[in-house]
Write a structure and sequence with these properties.
Blueprint: H1 7-22, H2 26-42, H3 49-56, H4 59-64, H5 71-94, H6 98-108, H7 124-131, E1 134-137, H8 139-146, E2 151-155, H9 161-175, E3 180-186, H10 202-206, E4 210-215, H11 220-236, E5 239-243, H12 244-251, E6 258-262, H13 266-272, E7 279-283
Parallel strand pairs: 1-7, 2-3, 2-5, 3-4, 5-6
Antiparallel strand pairs: 6-7
C-alpha cells in the first residue's frame, strides 16, 4: 500500500507515544518529532506505509539511546499469552473445525498492536476471538493448498500475538505431517513487533523443523529481495501467512499470499472495502 495523507498524523502520534515510554524530556521529544517530520517530507510516498514508518522510527534510539522502548512490554505480553496457551490448545483439539478455530485465535491475537492501540490487555484476545466477524474468509483456498504443500512461512507481526500464531502453526504442522516451518521477524525493534530476541525458546520445543530469520524493513533493497524470495516460494507451492496490518501494507502487491489481520484503521478498511474491526483471512489472487 502506498502512503496516504491520513497516515502522516498517525505516524507522528505513534512516534510521540513510543518516545514517551523512555523519556519525558521536552527537548528530546521535540528533536524526535522535528527530525521525523523532516524525513517524512523527503520520503517517496509511493512506497509502503510500513517501510516509511520503520525509517523514521530509528529517530527514537538515535535521540534517546534506547534501542527498544517496548522491550519489557513485549516480554510481558508473551508471558501473559502463554498463560492462555493451554486453554486455547484444548479448545482447538476439542473443536469440530480445529483449523478454523486456530485461525480465529491467531487473527484475534492481532489486536495486540501498540501501533494502532495505546494499550492492550492480552486477555481481551479471548473476548474478540468469540465475537470477531470474518468479512473475508478464504479458508477453502488454504485447505486446498494443505494437501499439496510441505512448507509454511509465517511473516510475524507482534509480540504476544506470536504465541497465538504458534497455535495455528502447530495445527498446520499436524495436518501437514511435520511440514517445515519458517518464521520471519523484524531485524530492528519497531513498536511491539517481534524481533529474533523476542521469539520464546519454547517455539523450538513446540515446532519441529523450525527456521527463524529476520528482515530489515527500513532497507528498501532488503525488502525488494525479500519480496522476490516470497515470489519464489509461492511458485514452489509453499504456504505463506502474513500476519497483521503492517505486513499487509508492506506485502499487499504480492500474489499467492494469505493475509491474516484485524482491520484497525479507516485507510486500510477503505482499501479492502471492509469495516474497522473486521477479521480478515485473505488469499491475494
Amino acid at each position: 500500500m502506498e502512503t496516504a495523507p491520513e497516515c502522516v498524523p498517525c505516524y507522528i502520534g505513534q512516534m510521540l507515544r513510543s518516545a514517551k515510554i523512555v523519556t519525558n524530556e521536552r527537548t528530546v521529544l521535540n528533536d524526535i518529532l522535528k527530525s521525523s517530520m523532516k524525513e517524512l517530507t523527503d520520503l517517496d510516498w509511493n512506497f509502503s506505509i510500513h517501510e516509511h514508518f520503520s525509517k523514521i522510527y530509528q529517530n527514537i534510539p538515535r535521540f534517546t539511546g534506547i534501542e527498544d522502548p517496548y522491550a519489557k512490554v513485549k516480554e510481558l505480553h508473551n508471558k501473559k499469552a502463554f498463560l492462555l496457551y493451554p486453554l486455547l490448545l484444548k479448545a482447538i483439539k476439542r473443536s469440530k473445525v480445529p483449523l478454523m478455530t486456530a485461525i480465529r485465535f491467531s487473527v484475534a491475537g492481532n489486536i495486540i498492536d501498540l501501533g494502532a492501540l495505546n494499550n492492550v490487555d492480552v486477555n481481551y484476545v479471548l473476548k474478540i476471538a468469540k465475537k470477531g466477524r470474518f468479512k473475508v474468509n478464504d479458508i477453502a483456498v488454504l485447505r486446498e493448498m494443505l494437501g499439496k504443500s510441505r512448507s509454511v512461512i509465517l511473516v510475524a507481526d507482534n509480540s504476544g500475538e506470536i504465541v497465538f500464531d504458534l497455535l495455528l502453526l502447530k495445527t498446520l504442522s499436524k495436518i501437514m505431517k511435520d511440514a517445515k516451518i519458517s518464521i520471519i521477524v523484524k531485524k530492528r525493534p519497531i513498536l511491539n513487533d517481534v524481533t529474533i530476541s523476542d521469539v520464546p525458546k519454547r517455539f523450538f520445543e513446540e515446532l519441529k523443523n523450525l527456521e527463524l530469520s529476520a528482515l530489515d524493513i527500513s532497507s528498501s533493497s532488503e525488502v525488494l529481495q525479500f519480496k522476490e524470495h516470497l515470489n519464489f516460494r509461492v511458485k514452489k507451492g509453499d504456504i505463506i501467512l502474513s500476519k497483521g496490518q503492517g505486513n499487509f501494507e508492506l506485502l499487499d502487491d504480492l500474489k499467492g499470499i494469505f493475509f491474516l489481520l484485524i482491520v484497525k484503521c479507516p485507510v486500510v478498511a477503505k482499501y479492502l472495502n471492509v469495516n474497522v474491526g473486521d477479521f480478515i483471512l485473505k488469499y491475494n489472487r
